[in-house]
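To: structure desk
From: M.T.
Subject: fold request, one chain
Message: Could you run this one when you get a chance? Sequence is below, nothing fancy, just the single chain.
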Amino acid sequence: MQRKVESLEKEASEPSFWENSTNAQLKMRDLAVLRGEIQTWSDLSDNVSSTVELFALAVEEDDEALSEQLRHDLDEYTQSVNALEFELQLSGEYDDRAAILYVKQGAGGVDAQDWAEMLLRMYTRWAERRGFGADVLDFTPGDEAGIKSATIKIDGKFAYGYLRSERGVHRLVRLSPFDADNRRHTSFALVEVLPEAGESEEVKIKQDDLRVDVFRASGNGGQNVQKNSTAIRLTHLPTNVVVAVQNERSQAQNREVAMRILLSRLVDLDMQKKAEERAKLKGEHVSAEFGRQVRSYVQHPYQMVKDHRTDFQSNDAQAILDGDLDELLKSYLTSQMESASAPSNAIR
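Reply: Done. Structure tokens follow.
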């Protein structure tokens, strides 16, 4: 990090640095983040060193009260080191970015729409617990209850790094509140997680590659929704990626949001292609499945949440649905790190 700071400081001192103001601002932001991270580690190192010295003095003078206080301080420093050490796993190219999270109902009718809304609430609660921002970018309500789909932006330190583990199909088993006979139902919902695209992204969208369609927004929204064609559908012709947004009240606002989501989808697509190329070089098997089931949430006949990729299991399903996701997310990231560090079986 110090070497990166020195490189950026040298670059910032060049006379031509501010000729591209957007690029310069991004680099100055990166510089500020790096300085902050270095300061965090430096302060922790200094605190540990001084506390160890004081502890030796307290033992020498048989000062039990001071020793106890210093033990407490060292426990806190240990927790801080563990947290910082875990963050080192979040070293992917986009891990430090905000996340754009898309939740869509799957099979299961009204129960699936309700399940999609439960997942949206779970991620929103998780963001609130961490002090992250959660803004709704697009929202389509269900026919009777829940939602058909929703897109939210979760903004906070390593938001994408933590949430990228949530991509895939999530399954719920419960006694349906929409079944008059109170029978057990299984519902599915799809979760997609994208890194927010930066202002100077390598992935560019040419106007010739873009088809723009306008249409009237559906659902509740008053006269503005009924009379004006404010909803936007963007189609990226080379990749056939489609993004539709109808949540905002003006066409211009919907187009701006749709462009942000489209760019993030293209960044994600580019990232997937690079991962597949790396996997082929290493001789790894690359699954062609899309959205396979990653996690099951059972509320009847027992309480359980199980991640099928890591075998992490919890009997407190309600706590997880209330946003207590950290252990689930960490188990996935840890398994990914262990998998990445394992020797490859590829024939060299």
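Reply (cont.): The longest strand covers residues 184-195. Let me know if you need anything else for the meeting.
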